[in-house]
Design goal:
By secondary structure, this protein is mainly beta. It has strands spanning 6-13, 27-38, 42-49, 60-66, 70-75. It has one domain.
Amino acid sequence: MKKGTRVLVEWVDITAALHTEEDIEPVLAQSVGWIDCNNKNWLRLVNSRYKEDKKFSKLADKIVIPKGCIKSVIEI
């Protein structure tokens, strides 16, 4: 998918626990955002962005998800 496409990404995230006897496992996570960069190694999403104010036009909240963790990407 191309830059600017709004998507729902389902991906597997790590789980960590200290001093535990529980059998922990990775968890399924979901992220919604606009594709900022999509290469062979990872997908970068913009979760929120400033559009109107030129002073803040480059500010955004972003997440980078390694491709090996991604289960699905659905355009929304």
